[in-house]
Amino acid sequence: MISYLRIDNLSKSFGDLVLFKDICFHLDQGQKIGLIAKNGTGKSTLLNIISGKDSPSSGTISFHKDISIGFLEQDPQLNPNLTVIEQSLASDNPIVKIIKDYEAALTSNSEKDIQRSMELMDLNKAWDYENKVKQILSKLKLNNLDQKVSSLSGGQQKRLALANVLINNPDLLILDEPTNHLDIEMIEWLEEYLADTASTLLLVTHDRYFLDDVCNGIIEIDRQGLYHYKGSYEYYIEKRDERIANDLTNIDKARNLMVKELEWIRRMPKARGTKSKYRIEAFDELKKKASEKITDDKAVIRTNMARLGSKIIELESISKAYQDKVLIQNFSYIFSRGEKLGIVGNNGSGKSTFLNILTGNVIPDSGTVSLGETLVIGYFRQEGMQFDQQMRVIDAVTNIAEFITLADGSKISASGLLTLFLFPPEKQYSYIYKLSGGEKRRLFLVTILMNNPNFLILDEPTNDLDIPTLQVLEDYLVRFGGCVIVVSHDRFFLDKIVQHIFAFDGNGVIKDFPGNYTEYRIRKQLLALAPTEKKVQKSESKLSSSSNSKKAGYKEKRAFEVLGNEIKKLEVDKKEIEFQLSQTIIDHQMLSDLSLKHAAIVAELDKKTDEWLHLDELLN
């Protein structure tokens, strides 16, 4: 197996802060590896070092000779003066130069140059390359090829940078959070693309389904070291838990042994022989091991939210449009206590407008929004994150409240809540400007929860959050007694939290689907087949009505009874699967299988109910 990348004894520190120390790993041709770590522990720094954007404190990095490398960084730098298509073709790739010459020949309208360029295009199969460029741009919803880079949003620029990397088809792909700023449709396309590509892959992502579907291995930075895992995300979780349990056992053993060794050192005579010196050195290593701390990332928190009355939010025939673009049309809905709602839809389909209407930041063109008197909304959104950068982390929280009341009536301090959300005490007295982007988003979440909301609105909460934080947040939301609305492209997060889905189709229509995201997707696929099925059912109905014009007899009565029993059994099976789906499920495949079974039972139930109603009409 050819080794594309080799890292030996790599270390990186900033003053007293050590991100990682003496880490080693290699990446072989064809491997697709996901890099996982808590925010602020060096994921992006490691990728920047590998790509040459940063330098290590010590250690070596080597690449296989003559391989091409593509790097998507978190904050890509593009040329603002180029158009989308020009930026996409801004490459040293020789085929790109041929395409540029062809485009220039067309502009000059020189038949001789056009003919020569076309021959070169044919010879180098450059037509296929050009089609690939436009196809990738289209999949990432960058359809205006003549638009200037300077006029693109931040998310569009990140997608264009991703397109540039994919277009060049490098031997080694290094991607830092490629799914940020992508909607679910784009993520699922990118999953398929990366799973099928021959490129070797090293990526940072917090999307757990993406890790499962794309990667065949995981590496984790933890406590300044690097750990390797082969297989899926679920396998990683299992083995990581085993490793931590084993480490905790070893630390306990070291602490017990240290007590005995410490007693020996205190009794040891002053004259020290060689064996004594060796034993003292061993004691120092033992003391270092016994002093290790492993934090529990599975902390559980249940706050005592503000009391929620019977009336929460009632929407009556609301509509909203901007010029000719209709985002919401004649939509009504009454929120009920404890419901957890997911919102999906393409960018620009009206999701953020809907949330802003709920919070009073946008007034609908028509219709009414009525809020309950006891409603306390906590709204997490990217643009709402504003901090005094010179403030300490702890002060940002204590300025809201010193304590928060938990569900059992006990109180927890601001410092305690920060600790539960993975800010250890030493981090709490750091200045906010020193935090990573993900740590700032985590702090923003804590400040929202300190207000004890009973209605949480989370707009893309998973962006830049590490997996341990997502697990804490998921556990909190599962136990949260109030209402939750989540807009997210993280399918794992949606599957674990929500009970039904609002799907925005972009034409003002909002459809309500029961179940989590995976069930919604399956139902959507089934609905796409519905028009054909309805035609078949209609023709069958005509045949049935003509053939059953006679009075129903014993055969029909027996069929009626059998169908009734079958419907009851299907209802029991349906409830059983719904109960399983409501449990904490980590296994992506199990969740998908259960959702498929649920959809099949619902379809069978609908069919048998229709037959039962038809027979009921004949018999009565």
Brief summary of the model shown:
With 620 residues, this protein is an alpha/beta fold.
Describe this structure in words.
With 620 residues, the chain is of the alpha/beta class. It folds into four domains: 233 residues, Rossmann fold (3-Layer(aba) Sandwich); 55 residues; 202 residues, 3-Layer(aba) Sandwich (Rossmann fold), CATH 3.40.50.300; 101 residues, Helix Hairpins (Orthogonal Bundle). It is 47% helix and 20% strand. It is built from 20 helices and 20 strands. Strands 5-6-7-3-8-9 form a six-stranded mixed beta sheet, sandwiched between helices. The radius of gyration is 30 Å and the shape is globular.
